[in-house]
User: Which sequence fits this backbone?
């Protein structure tokens, strides 16, 4: 397969799986856009919560929203400002870099939809496909799609509870007869530098218990994913100054560095 199938996966709710499945594809696309290289990325939303599908629907509606319009006029001033800002930033990136965000398709847990998802995974129509799975692998139909994952990235945190919650998930994936899987890698999400020693201790315990490596980059804890800035149409690592026409990294946000390492892992394993 030419296309690389990636799953940011795990058993624990709130670990950031769906959020990062939204953020990382756009970070990859921006790196390609800056180099004027073509790249096609698809997110297949298999999660019954549909958080990424709902987010994308909202953001597309914002881009299409007429200004003025009854709906826009009914928003408060802060929301109106956010609508204008997101639209302006999107248009700026599109004009400067030919920016286009990742595609998204929803997979319902019924045979026809699952079969269409499998057709896409067999099609080689994309450079990268991210699968946004539910928090449990027990969901009916999930097993038909998980077998296509080539690169699994598992987010975790710094406490013993998170390690214990991983045990059943690791047992499940170790029971799967993988035909395509190239690598399983852990990483820390919502990392706090001040608690570095605690993270290091947890990392050592996880590696010893489960035998899988950790990524070097740890995703910093940031309020950006809880802010009005968070959406599915823009790279989250960027600060875009519309007055000076400058684009530069947001302070304290290391999605870009994490994405570089993820691509190292994927591309290295692809060449091996």
Assistant:
């Amino acid at each position: 397969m030419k296309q690389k199938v990636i799953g940011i996966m795990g058993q624990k709710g709130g670990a950031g799986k769906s959020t990062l499945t939204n953020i990382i594809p756009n970070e990859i696309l921006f790196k390609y856009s800056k180099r004027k290289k073509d790249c096609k990325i698809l997110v297949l939303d298999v999660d019954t919560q549909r958080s990424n599908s709902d987010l994308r629907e909202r953001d597309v509606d914002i881009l299409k929203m007429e200004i003025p319009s009854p709906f826009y006029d009914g928003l408060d001033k802060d929301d109106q400002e956010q609508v204008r800002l997101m639209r302006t930033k999107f248009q700026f990136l599109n004009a400067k870099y030919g920016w286009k965000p990742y595609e998204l398709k929803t997979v319902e847990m019924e045979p026809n939809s699952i079969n269409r998802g499998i057709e896409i995974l067999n099609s080689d129509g994309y450079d990268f496909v991210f699968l946004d799975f539910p928090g449990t692998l027990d969901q009916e139909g999930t097993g038909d799609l998980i077998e296509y994952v080539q690169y699994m990235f598992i987010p975790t945190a710094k406490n013993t509870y998170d390690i214990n919650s991983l045990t059943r998930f690791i047992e499940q994936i170790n029971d799967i007869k993988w035909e395509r899987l190239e690598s399983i890698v852990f990483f820390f999400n919502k990392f706090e530098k001040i608690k570095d020693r605690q993270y290091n201790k947890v990392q050592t315990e996880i590696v010893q218990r489960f035998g899988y490596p950790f990524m070097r980059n740890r995703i910093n804890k940031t309020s950006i994913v809880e802010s009005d800035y968070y959406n599915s149409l823009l790279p989250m690592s960027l600060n875009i100054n519309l007055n000076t026409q400058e684009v530069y990294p947001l302070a304290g946000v290391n999605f870009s560095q994490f994405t570089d390492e993820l691509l190292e892992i994927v591309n290295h394993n692809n060449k091996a």
